[in-house]
Design a protein that fits this description.
Type Iii Antifreeze Protein Isoform Hplc 12; alpha+beta
C-alpha cells in the first residue's frame, strides 16, 4: 500500500515537472520568434548598380529598409560609413540587401564577363528563360551542357518524331546578363569567403525575365547553338569539367521510361 502511494506521488511530481518544462519551452520559443521578427534597418538596392561603381556614387541607388531580423544577413550593411573607397564587386540588382562581400577594393575588382577565352574558341550569345538556365544560377566561369530538342527531323529514319540530345558539352560561360528584379526581396548573402560572382545557394528568389548567356565554344558547336536558337529549343545543365559523359544518346518518347 505504501509503495503504491509513493509511486503515485512520484508520477504526479513528474507530470507537474513535465508540464512546467513544456510551458517554459513554449514561452522561450515565443520569445525567440518575437526576437527574430524585430525589424532591423539595412541598406537595400533601389536601382541597378553596375559592377565597379564606387561606394561614394551609390547613395542615390540605395534605400534604408526595415526587415525582420531573421531575414537579415550577418554581413548586411546599415550604412556606407566604413565602406568608403570600395567599389561594387558585381552588378547589384534592385531588391537585394547590400552586404559587405559585394564591396571590394578597386584592385580586387573582378568584372563579370572577364573570363579568359581558350585559344581556338569563339563566343556566341543566346537568350533563354530562367527555368531553362539552371534557375538563373549561372555565373561567368561556369560550364554548361546544351540540350537541343526538335519537334521533328532529329532522326533520319523517324523524321516525324520528337527528339532531345545533349548536343554541346561543357561550354564555358563568359557572360550572364539578366533583367533587373522588379520588387525588393530579402536575400541572405553568401559567406565572406565566397566568390562574389557566384550564385548565392541560399537565394530562393524566383528569377524574373529572360537571361542572355554568352558561351565560348568551337565553330561547330556555335553553329549547333545558333541552329537550335533559330529552329529548335534549348535547355541548359550546369556541367562542370569533371561531369560524367555517357556518350551520345538521342532521347525519344520510347526512351524516357527506360
Amino acid at each position: 500500500m505504501k509503495s503504491r502511494l509513493l509511486a503515485g506521488a512520484a508520477a504526479v511530481i513528474l507530470a507537474i515537472l513535465g508540464a512546467m518544462l513544456v510551458v517554459s519551452y513554449a514561452q522561450g520559443a515565443d520569445q525567440r520568434a518575437v526576437k527574430n521578427m524585430e525589424p532591423v534597418d539595412v541598406l537595400v538596392v533601389k536601382t541597378a548598380i553596375p559592377a565597379g561603381t564606387p561606394v561614394e556614387s551609390m547613395t542615390a541607388s540605395l534605400a534604408t529598409k526595415q526587415l525582420p531580423a531573421a531575414a537579415v544577413s550577418e554581413s548586411s550593411l546599415k550604412s556606407l560609413d566604413e565602406s568608403k573607397g570600395k567599389v561594387a564587386a558585381v552588378d547589384l540588382v534592385p531588391g537585394e540587401q547590400l552586404v559587405a562581400e559585394r564591396l571590394v577594393a578597386p584592385d580586387e575588382l573582378k568584372v563579370q564577363g572577364s573570363v579568359e577565352i581558350p585559344a581556338g574558341l569563339q563566343e556566341v550569345s543566346f537568350q533563354l528563360e530562367p527555368d531553362r538556365v539552371v534557375g538563373g544560377r549561372l555565373a561567368p566561369g561556369d560550364h554548361v551542357g546544351v540540350f537541343v530538342s526538335m519537334d521533328k527531323g532529329g532522326l533520319e529514319d523517324k523524321a516525324d518524331k520528337e527528339t532531345t540530345k545533349l548536343t554541346v558539352h561543357k561550354a564555358l560561360v563568359t557572360a550572364v546578363q539578366r533583367s533587373p528584379e522588379a520588387a525588393p526581396t530579402a536575400v541572405p548573402a553568401p559567406s565572406a569567403s565566397a566568390d562574389p560572382n557566384a550564385a548565392n545557394p541560399q537565394d530562393t528568389t524566383l528569377p524574373v525575365g529572360s537571361l542572355m548567356l554568352t558561351v565560348a565554344v568551337s565553330d561547330v558547336d556555335a553553329a549547333k547553338i545558333i541552329f537550335a536558337a533559330e529552329y529548335g529549343k534549348m535547355w541548359l545543365s550546369k556541367e562542370p569539367t569533371n561531369a560524367k559523359n555517357s556518350g551520345p544518346r538521342i532521347i525519344q518518347r520510347s526512351e524516357v521510361y527506360k
